[in-house]
Amino acid sequence: MTVTGAIWRDQLTADERAVLGRADGGVAGARPDVLVVGGGIVGVTTAFACVTGGLGDVLLIETGRLGAGATGGATGLLIPEPHQWSDPEPFVDLERASLERWRDLQQALPAGVGLVELDWLGLAPHASGFAAHQPRDVQWLNPGQVAELVPGLARPMEGALIRRQARVNPLRAVARLAARLPAVATGVAATSVVMSGDRVVRVATSSGDISPGVVVFATGRPPVLDGLPLHIPSDRVKGHLLVTERTDIRLPGIVAPVATQIEGGQLLAGGTFDVGDETPAVQPDVIDGITAGLAAVLPRLRELGVAYQWCCFRPRHPDRRPVIDKVPGLANAWLTSGHFRTGILNAPATAAVLSRWIETGNPPADARTWSATRFGGH
């Protein structure tokens, strides 16, 4: 039987699942030093960074359950090094720094965040299948070496091996971090803001008004709220993923573009780009395409069934880079949005940038790279 829904929630303990629905009482009349709007991985890590940074009372609000949006449908892969083939240098630097922060969080929390260290192996019919620019610490493998790591390939493949990458169950990471927050209110939607001069003085929500010292919007796509003059272009792209039934086939971590071995011998595959599909439903033909792709590379997977199938929408900006900035024209409001396929990876570094900016008043050195005004039209 195939479950339509992500596997991540089923891997959690009862206590971890309960944290995702935290509702610590009414928010009406609350006056937090920091209000974080958005309960995905970026919002939760930002709230956590503000708490551990000593920025005062921190309140996080989320319309649904924690991790209910793109976070809960993500792969949870933390793989900065392969992005050297596709992303600009500042982005890769952010990703590398963020993976190290994930490792710090794994050590800092008593139960960790569920970080799993693993290697990344990229397959190509020949070495020219990769860009000429080589990521650091890449080990080029000939077809014989690849076949030793991944027996049964349908055709000889060369490969690029990058060690010390990682992954997390994104909902477990959210739950472990959110359990350390002092105040979380799920089921609370921000509806409008009231400004006085260049400051947000009130955020109206479905459960009453909040008067924050500062506010951080971490809402996936840029927030659309009455009274907030913000116009940043964005869209969303649907993607499908699946997890197979258990198999005795063992992969050496992440094998791109095939699959990632996860707990219990199951394989995580997919991550499609279904541009133009705005329906929330899983499309059987896309799932069939993913399974066909698995079998084309590893024929032994041809009869392997699908245990979980799901889709999610990933927010992005036109240049596929996130916004990490102050809300233009406001002194006490920040936002981060459009993390697209790297929201899980970049969450801790984004949180560190925002919490430090709030504390010191100083933007990061590469602020223009992540600027909300880089698109014009404000």
Tell me briefly what this model is:
The chain has 378 residues and is α/β, with parallel strands linked by helices.
User: What's the CATH topology label of the largest domain?
Assistant: FAD/NAD(P)-binding domain
Class inferred from helices and paired strands? alpha/beta
CATH homologous superfamily (4th level) name of the largest domain: FAD/NAD(P)-binding domain
Number of domains: 2
On the 0 to 100 scale, the average pLDDT is 94
N-end to C-end Cα span:
50 Å
**Strand and helix order:** EHEHEHEHEEHEHEEEEEEEEEHEEEH
Number of strands: 19
Q: Tell me what the CATH architecture of the largest domain is.
A: 3-Layer(bba) Sandwich
Large-scale geometry: globular
Share in β-strands? 25-35%
Question: Care to describe what's here?
Answer:
The chain is built from 8 helices and 19 strands. The protein has 378 residues and is an alpha/beta fold. The chain folds into 2 domains: 14-74 and 172-233 and 320-370, FAD/NAD(P)-binding domain (3-Layer(bba) Sandwich), CATH 3.50.50; 116-167 and 235-316, D-Amino Acid Oxidase, subunit A, domain 2 (D-Amino Acid Oxidase, Chain A, domain 2), CATH 3.30.9.10. The strands form 3 sheets. Strands 1, 4, 5, 6, 7, 13, 14, 15, 16 and 17 form a 10-stranded mixed beta sheet that branches. The protein has a 6-stranded mixed beta sheet with strand order 8-3-2-12-19-18, with helices on one face. It has a 3-stranded antiparallel beta sheet with strand order 9-10-11, with no helix packed on it. It starts with a strand and ends in an 18-residue tail after the last helix. The mean pLDDT is 94.
